[in-house]
Amino acid sequence: MSPPLLKLGAVLSTMAMISNWMSQTLPSLVGLNTTRITTSDALTQISPKEGWQVYSSAQDPDGRCICTVVAPEQNLCSRDAKSRQLRQLLEKVQNMSQSIEVLNLRTQRDFQYVLKMETQMKGLKAKFRQIEDDRKTLMTKHFQELKEKMDELLPLIPVLEQYKTDAKLITQFKEEIRNLSTVLTGIQEEIGAYDYEELHQRVLSLETRLRDCMKKLTCGKLMKITGPITVKTSGTRFGAWMTDPLASEKNNRVWYMDSYTNNKIVREYKSIADFVSGAESRTYNLPFKWAGTNHVVYNGSLYFNKYQSNIVIKYSFDTARVLAQRSLEYAGFHNVYPYTWGGFSDIDLMADEIGLWAVYATNQNAGNIVISQLNQDTLEVLKSWSTGYPKRSAGESFMICGTLYVTNSHLTGAKVYYSYSTKTSTYEYTDIPFHNQYFHISMLDYNARDRALYAWNNGHQVLFNVTLFHVIKTEDDT
């Protein structure tokens, strides 16, 4: 093959390699094989864990609506991660654009040579037709030599046509790279090209402002229950699981108490993740059996109802000892005044933003619910409120900000039907539905730290989110 043909062959070989590289590598570099990149407001969908979450609404004295927002964890600074990924992606596209530009210059230079050569070949072909028409004017030998040369060049014509097509493809690639670079630059400008320290300080500043705002929120009124989220499926139909609402942010221990009677074993897990995987960290053998499923962990101690009695026990997890015990005067026990599902659920111990509570019924109050606030150290009753709601008609109950919320059933179709405020000593009938996914609830308890309801739902450990209506404190409030 002649030198021009060798040169053309090298160019075509390079074109083939570049085309193959573009088809296989370009999609993975720019994310076209996984994520469709557009000029929308975000490059990818940020998951709930990484994003900002609004978990409650508020209203100030002037009637303005305020939303309370939960910031993402500091070590999950997703916008910074996305910015870094975007910069890296943009650098790759820019490098690729430079390579395409070099290839394009070489291609255009050779393309001009090809066009010139194509013109010469077509002219040569026309001359051969003329010669062939008047072959008598030339010597037979010279004509045969020229025809052989032409025969050698004829196979090159379709190659030249393909080369023109590949040159157009390079031009298209160049235009697509330019467009993609423009899109990525625009996205980068929209989300802001912050470095890590700058973005980190912005997050910390926002978190501080949110915490200051939270300090102005008084206790809220229950407005809505959403969920449930199934955390785990384990144990019998009846049981309790809980975390400590007064524990530090780094302390996420979970306690698990299966069954409503004839048991003294409490299982501890270091975190929700360990609880889900079954990685038990410690086991406690209580000195007494418990009754019911309405126990509570509060400030490092377990509070439970001693089996076949109206005695409340305070048990320390740190010392594995009973720190206090006290009888609830006149409180019914051993299925005298249980919830609708039975199970020795006469005495319900719970905690909220205000403190420790006991919910039960007495003969003196005609079997209706009595609410008592307890001293967490001595278990002494600080104050009691007598309601008019029959304990045996209640499915479950829980305290939020000093208000008792009572469900009308433990079965499908249950809803929060009644509430009693210890602040005003008044009650009201409510209609707040929630999804009883597994048809039988034997434990429902509010955790003030998590702002969630923990539930044991027919052998499933689930969580419900709550929406509270907050009243904003003003400078005039005492």
UniProtKB/TrEMBL annotation:
Gene Ontology terms: biological process: signal transduction
Coiled coil: 79-141, 170-216
Pfam families, A to Z: Noelin-1, OLF
Keyword line: Coiled coil, Disulfide bond, Glycoprotein, Secreted, Signal, Synapse
UniProt-listed SMART domains: OLF (SM00284)
PANTHER family: NOELIN-3, OLFACTOMEDIN-RELATED
Name of the protein described by the UniProt record: NOE3 protein
Source organism (scientific name): Centropus bengalensis (lesser coucal)
Taxonomic lineage of the native organism: Eukaryota, Metazoa, Chordata, Craniata, Vertebrata
